[in-house]
């Protein structure tokens, strides 16, 4: 399996933290040198490991925001 290179360009915020120190974060990340996208996933402390996540363009993130704003929570 090829190495995945990433650069966290902006940390938007933390959604939650587990008792083991992993955090679910929304970040702006450049994957393998490509244009950055918004990314929501779990990270180990110091970002040495990551879980599966969702990567969204600005347009997709706006559409998600609009959907969430319509929900009654």
Give a structural overview.
The chain is an alpha+beta fold and 73 residues long. Helix content is 18%, strand content 48%. The protein has 1 helix and 4 strands. It has one helix spanning 58-70, and strands spanning 6-17, 23-31, 37-43, 50-56. The radius of gyration is 13 Å and the shape is flat. The model has no long low-confidence stretch (mean pLDDT 95).
Summarize the structure in short.
The chain is an alpha+beta fold. Helix content is 18%, strand content 48%. The chain contains one helix and four strands, in the order E-E-E-E-H.
Please render the helix and strand layout as text:
Elements: E1 6-17, E2 23-31, E3 37-43, E4 50-56, H1 58-70
Antiparallel strand pairs: 1-2, 2-3, 3-4
Assign the structural class, choosing from mainly alpha, mainly beta, alpha/beta, alpha+beta, or little secondary structure: alpha+beta
**N- and C-termini, Cα separation:** 41 Å
The low-confidence runs, each spanning 5 or more residues with pLDDT under 50, are none
- Indicate the proportion of strand residues: over 45%
Quickly list its features.
73 residues; alpha+beta; 4-stranded antiparallel beta sheet; 1 helix; 4 strands; flat
């Amino acid at each position: 399996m090829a190495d995945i290179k990433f650069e966290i360009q902006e940390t938007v915020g933390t959604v939650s933290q587990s008792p083991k120190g992993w955090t679910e974060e929304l970040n702006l990340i450049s994957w393998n040198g490509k244009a950055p996208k918004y990314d929501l996933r779990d990270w180990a402390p110091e970002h040495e490991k990551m879980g599966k996540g969702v990567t969204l363009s600005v347009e997709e993130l706006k559409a998600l925001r609009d959907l969430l704003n319509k929900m009654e929570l």
